[in-house]
Amino acid sequence: MNSLLTRFISAVVLATLCIVVIFIWKAQGLLGLTTVFVGIGSFELMQILFPSEKSKSRVPSYLFLGTVWTMFAIIAFGNRSPLEVLQGGCILYIISNLWLHRKSENIKSIFQNLTLGLMGITYMCLYPASAIEITRMENGVELFLFFLGIVVAGDIGAYLMGVYFGKIRIAPFISPKKSLEGMMGGLTGSFLIGALFAWYHPQQEFWKFLALSLTTGLVGQFGDFFESLLKRVADVKDSGSIMPGHGGVLDRIDGILFACPVFLFGIRLFYQ
Asked: pLDDT per residue over 243-263, tens digit each?
């Protein structure tokens, strides 16, 4: 099957499933979907950061995964401040690593595990926590769907423009296929979603929607670059294989993870 068709069918199936869940359960459905994506995505990230073939012990990877799942569960279902949980969780993660490796002679390995783990915890706990904060706001489901529209439209625009018109490579050693034309196509897609949303909300200032859409869309694209860098270092093509034509869950939510805090900040700045 053509890779583009496979990618399209896979995206439609996932989008349909998400829409049905959100339509039936609304905010609770969004929370459930976020939890599932974080659970699978953090497992994929663990395999990238702590590959088994390069590690003598699986303790660092299991410690990382357990910390992420526990912290996110507290944020999502314990109604605790994300920053408060992140601070406490990171301290406990550091202490646990130091204690478990207290007799190790490989100081550089201990430091590398700590650095990678703390980065991964921020990536998979603090950023998704912004999505939960959005859903808890007034009209949170509508706002989150607006946010998803910005990122997804940007992703589609970037992909199509990059495939058919991409010539100028932005960062060939990080992500060889990403082009300036693709980035412009992505920003155009995000812009159109912002304009559409503004048209449905004429009581709000038009420029705020557009500024929020463009900024969110741009940051989301850099989320793709960051995950490409992680995969380059780990020497893997995709974070997983759960989604035909797309790769893993992390390959689909990388832009969402990066853009979520920016969108939340923009909403609070402009409208709260």
From this structure: 766 678 998 899 999 999 999
